[in-house]
Design brief:
The complex is a heterodimer.
Chain A lengths: L1 E3 L2 H8 L8 E7 L6 E7 L3 E4 L4 H11 L1 H7 L1 E2 L8 E2 L2 H17 L14 E3 L6 E5 L7 E2 L4 E2 L3 E5 H9 L4 H4 L10 E5 L6 E6 L11 E5 L8 E6 L3
Parallel strand pairs in A: 1-5
Antiparallel strand pairs in A: 1-4, 2-3, 2-6, 3-4, 7-13, 8-11, 8-12, 9-10, 11-14, 12-15, 13-14
Chain B lengths: L6 E4 L2 H8 L8 E8 L4 E8 L3 E4 L10 E6 L2 E4 L1
Antiparallel strand pairs in B: 1-4, 2-3, 2-5, 3-4, 5-6
The chains are: A alpha+beta, B mainly beta.
Chain lengths: 232, 78
Amino acid sequence: MIFKAYSSAQRQFLSLPETGMGYQIIEAKRYGKIFKDRFVVFNSELVIDLDSKFSDFKRQIITEGYSRILIKAESLPIETSTISLVARSQITEYRILTETKKKDRGRHSGGTGSADNPKELADGEEIFDRLSAYENDKRIDFENKKLIPGTYTTTDSDYRACVRFSDDPIDRYALPNDEEIKWVFYVRPKTNDVLQRGIVQPAFGHDGGGIEIYFKNGTSNKTYLERKDYGK
Amino acid sequence: MGNSIKKRIKLKEEYIKYLLELPESGMGYQIVDITLKNGQQLKKRIVLNSQFLLLENSEDIDSNFIEKVEVEGKKHYR
C-alpha cells in the first residue's frame, strides 16, 4: 500500500538520516501488530510497503505523479515510538534477495540494450516474438509478412520463460504503459536478416531484465508466421 | 492498485505514417517531442504502436492541434 505519514511520524522521519537521496528505509510497528514492517519513505511524507508489491507501487507513483498519490493516500497508523532506520546491511541483503527473485523468473541482470550490441545474422531457424497490446500491431507488415525496419522483439525462449514464471511482461520488458499484453506475433527471420541481441535495461520504473532483439532493417518477406493470444 | 493507464489520443494518419518509417525506442513504443500550434512543446512523450500519444490525465489536447513531431532529431511538419 501507499500511505501518507501522520505529522508525528513525519517529525520522527525528519530526525533520522536518509538512506539515499530523498528517501529513507525504515521499519515500524502498525497499531495492533506484533512485528515491525519495512517501509520506504519519500520526502518524509509518502510511505510505501517495502516487502509487498513495492515495484507496482513505485510504478504507480511514477505514472500518476507524486502529488496526486500523496493527496489520495490513506494515513499510515504506525506507533511512532517504534520507528527506526533499517541498517544498510539488511538493505544489501534485501537487494540480494531481489536479484535472486529476478533470476528465479529467468530474467537477466546488467548487460546492455540490443542497440548497443554487435549485429549478427539470423540462423533461419530461431523464432522471435513480438508482444503487443494491439491486434493490428503497426510494426508488422501483414501484407508482405515481415517486420518493418526499427522493430523490437524478444526471443521465443524469453517469452516462454515470462509465461512459465507468471512474470509481468510490462516489468520484464520495461514498457512505458500498463496496457495489457494480449497478443504475440511470431517471426522466423531468414539467414540474411540482421539482428542485435541485448538485455532490457531498467526504464519507466520497471526492472527490465528480459531479452530484447532489435531488427534495424526489419526482416525479409514471408518471415511473419502467426499471431496468438498471449500465454497460449 | 489504481489504474495507472494514461490518457491517450490517436495521431493523425500522416504522423502515423511518418513514425512507422522511424525506429522504435523499445518494444511497442517510440519517444517523441511534440510541438503544438501555439508553440508549446511536449518533450520526451511516448507514442504506442506508432499511433497513440500518451498524455497526462490533466492534459486535453486535440490531435489537430499538433504542429510538429520529432524523433531523435528528425522533424516532420504538418
